[in-house]
Amino acid sequence: MADINLDQLQNGTPVKIEKDGKTICLTRVGDEVFAINDTCSHSDASLSEGEVSDYKIECWLHGAEFDLRTGVALTLPATQAVETYAVTVDGNSVTVEI
Ligand code: FES
């Protein structure tokens, strides 16, 4: 079953969802959708409230940037990656694989 419909995701505007006890930040970039753990690896901030540019998301709290594709922390103060999850897009159905 789909977690969300593709047309509910606006380009570059992250959406927070809950699945299997995890809080996930879903971000659409063009026709691709990326899923990362919603909690910043630096401290307790919700990444879905951050700013997206290209394939990067910036934590609103202290400004660390993460790569949406890999979860890697690109800038300080974060040094650890956030977990990423595979996403399947089938027509309008978006499913996060956990
Ligand atoms: S909580 Fe995200 S950079 Fe500090």
The structure class reads mainly beta
Which parts are unreliable, with pLDDT below 50 for 5 consecutive residues or more?
none
User: How many strand segments?
Assistant: 9
Apparent shape: globular
Structure explained in plain terms:
The protein is built from no helices and 9 strands. It is mainly β. It has a single domain (4-97), classed as 3-layer Sandwich (Rieske Iron-sulfur Protein), CATH 2.102.10. The chain has a 6-stranded antiparallel beta sheet with strand order 1-9-8-4-3-2, with no helix packed on it. Bound molecules: FE2/S2 (inorganic) cluster. Residues 40, 42-43, 45, 59, 61-62, 64, 77-78 line the site of FE2/S2 (inorganic) cluster.
List the helices and strands and how they pair.
Elements: E1 4-5, E2 15-19, E3 22-29, E4 32-37, E5 51-53, E6 56-58, E7 65-67, E8 84-90, E9 93-97
Antiparallel strand pairs: 1-9, 2-3, 3-4, 4-8, 5-6, 6-7, 8-9
Bound molecules: FE2/S2 (inorganic) cluster.
FE2/S2 (inorganic) cluster (FES) is lined by residues 40, 42-43, 45, 59, 61-62, 64, 77-78.
